[in-house]
Amino acid sequence: MEKLAEHLWPILKQITGYIYPNEIELYWGMLIVIYPYITGLVAGAFILASLVKVFNVKELQPTYRLSLLTSLAFLIVAPLPLLAHLGHPERSLEIFLTPNKSSAMAMFGFVYAWYLMAVLLLEIWFDYRKDLIMWADKEKGLRRLIKRIITLFSTDTSERAVKFDKKAVKIITIIGIPSAFLLHGYVGFIFGSIKANPWWSSVLMPIVFLFSAIVSGIALVLLIYMVVTLVRRQELVMASLDKLANYLFFTMIVAFSLEALDFIHRLYESEESITILSQLISGKLFVSLVVIQFLLGMILPLGALAAVKLFRVPAELRRHVYFVSALLVQVGIFTTRWNVVIGGQLFSKSFRGLTAYKMTLGGMEGLLASLAFLILPFVILYILVKILPPWEKNRTP
Questions:
Q1: Domain boundaries defined on the chain
Q2: Which of 110, 121, 270, 334 holds its CA 20 to 30 A away from the CA of 165?
Q3: In order along the chain (397 residues), what is the average pLDDT of each group of 10 residues?
Q4: Which residues, at least 6 apart from 96, have a Cβ–Cβ distance to it below 8 Å?
């Protein structure tokens, strides 16, 4: 009993108001924060890539393949935090063996498999097929064999075959856009459908999640493009950077408007939960929600990007503004996920008190494991870039 009291005391002393003993423990931790954050990056990066093939935004061509590979790298890692949180990842196979149509979480397995196999991998395969055939002819040994296997030993580089590849990419991209919406929109649907929690229960939750995902995906591709180009000692294409920043700016306005609308709607309804939610925002979540999410992650980048659009800013300064703005956006979106997942568990079901969340350093739910899941997609992206170079000069004519 003394050991239990010693363990609970750091949390108990942070509790505000009255709260039942069985409401002290938070069931969803850092891994569930990372899970929607990564799936959002997947959807956002793919939607950015679709602007090239579907809407013919030529300025984004230098980032098209990089966006696809980024989406694939993060998609591979997307289910891992969720599986690690469950404790028995082998049980995930039950989703496919005994499907439950009424479970939104179970349906994620099918949406994930569809998006990975039928959309993203197929689009990358058709887009790279001719290049891989040409590259394989110049390679020897294991590298040649790997590229041959990826192309399924295809050797047809005729004009007719290339036209078919381009047509297939466009069709797959058109199909992939609603698939990307579904992939991340369902995450917001899960939170929004939990009626017992007023912090989550909102019809706008799926839409807010979706547009914040687009914002985070665009910001991530912008950051990766700038960093990789700098590392390769190549010249940044300012037309591409300006176009990326424009899309980032306008999607941020939509995302901010939706979040503001959701907040105003909650104030207008003023249900019995409004008192505890006000205490939550002004107390436990003041720094993460008001300071980091809204001021640093939304208002400051929006103001910086608006200033670039309104005034004639030199290219060198624009690059710095874009980089810092995209970095702040990533911090803001991650904090958004934190505020939704962790914040929604900090108040009691009786609306009488607030508890606290304490993250450990080690363990599966700890800081080190969370950082590993955030770093892993970049490691996979590095490997993908080595196998499938996304640079324009590597494209065959």
A1: 30-193+361-390
A2: 110
A3: 57 58 70 91 92 90 94 92 82 76 74 82 92 87 85 87 92 88 79 76 85 94 95 91 95 93 81 81 89 95 94 90 96 94 82 79 85 95 92 64
A4: 109, 110, 113
189-206 as b/e: b if 16+ CB within 10 A = bbbbeeeeebbbbbebbb
CA–CA separation, 312 and 257 (whole Å) = 27
CA neighbor of 187 nearest in space, from 341, 346, 290: 341
Helix (H, G, I), strand (E, B) or coil at 224: helix
**Cβ proximity of 106 and 100 under 8 Å:** yes
What is the pLDDT at residue 143?
82
Q: CA triplet 215, 216, 220: central angle to 5 degrees?
A: 120
The pLDDT of residue 116: 76
Q: Do 93 and 373 meet the contact criterion of CB atoms below 8 Å apart?
A: no
pLDDT of residue 103: 72
Nearest residue to 16 via CA among 363, 352, 367, 358: 352
Residue identified by tokens 């075959």 is 161
φ, ψ at 362 (rounded to 5°): -100, -175
Query: Would you tell me how many other CB atoms lie within 10 Å of the CB of residue 299?
Result: 15
Torsion of CA 211, 217, 220, 222, to 10 degrees: -90
Query: What residue ranges in the chain does DSSP mark as E strands?
Result: 16-17, 353-354
Q: What is the mean pLDDT of the chain?
A: 85
What is the token pair recorded at 129?
A: 């097929």
Please report, for residues 40, 42, 49, 158, 176, the alpha-carbon distance to residue 52 in angstroms, rounded to integers and kept in the order given.
20, 17, 6, 24, 13
Q: Which residue has the tokens 């017992």?
A: 196
Q: Which residues contact 187 (CB under 8 A, 6 or more apart)?
A: 35, 36, 39, 40, 206, 209
Q: What count of other Cβ atoms lies within 10 Å of the Cβ of residue 365?
A: 18
The two tokens of residue 387 are 């196998």
Q: What is the pLDDT of residues 231-256, one digit of tens each?
A: 998 989 999 999 999 999 999 999 99
Both tokens of residue 208? 């807010």
pTM for the full predicted model? 0.89
